[in-house]
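Today's session is about reading a structure prediction critically. Students often jump straight to the picture, but the first step is always the sequence itself: look for stretches that repeat, for charged clusters, for runs of hydrophobic residues. Only then move on to the predicted structure, which in these notes is written as discrete structure tokens rather than atom positions. Here is the chain we will use throughout the hour.
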Amino acid sequence: MKRYWRSLRCFWGTSLAAELEYPLNAAIEFVSVLGNLAGSLFVLQLLFAGGPSLGGWSWSGALVVLGLYTLLDGFTTCVLQPNLSRIVSHVQTGTLDYVLLKPIDSQFWLSARTVSPWGLPAVAAGLGLIGWALAQGGPEAAAGLRSLGAVLLPLALLLAALAILYSLWFVLAALSIWFVKVWNATEVLRYTLVAGRYPVSAYPPALRLLFTFVLPVAFLTTVPAEALLGRGSALWAIGSLLVAALCLAGSRLLWRFAQRSYTSASS
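Below is the predicted structure for this chain, in token form.
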């Protein structure tokens, strides 16, 4: 583990040094995040124009869901997109050979080789929106944070959401071993996950089933938000942790199988 932590510090240190040569990108990303957040809030306000609740969620509760989505989107920009988007080019050019020959786990290398700081504004905006929503909601909205156990549960579910999100991205990227042009599929995935901006119960029944049992959008934002609001159920919490474990295991098994199917483009 020490070797992996040392490698991660080296990876991210060099990546940040290279990225910070262009500080103007931070201002551009900050404006972009504010624009996207303003658009999401505007749409959310329109959805609440028909009544005081949206699928059984109050305004402050829906803001928590939106904040979690914004946080996850920032994580995608920081870690997932800059790393996993390069798997396709590694396969196309044959440089995946050098990755597989390194004395370090190839999935770790491909998943954590670089980091982009330009997703941090979205992470900060998501955390700020969650905090503001809990404060606006009053005691009821902050009920999930009254004890240590109630704080640890949302954190565990948030980590589960990150694991699920990572697994979905990695599985699609790993498919480039067989289907080279899969990067468009990851973009489709990212825009499909936009459904996580709003509570799953706000969607029609067919979409609720799709976003729960086919594409686990519900476990990314809605389930952690319910835990933050103090109304999560043990069944959904266990289900979220189980889905995260299955997704991680599935991504690992797929990658090990993909390595056996890989034929170099350079030799």
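Discussion point for the tutorial: The chain has a mean pLDDT of 87.
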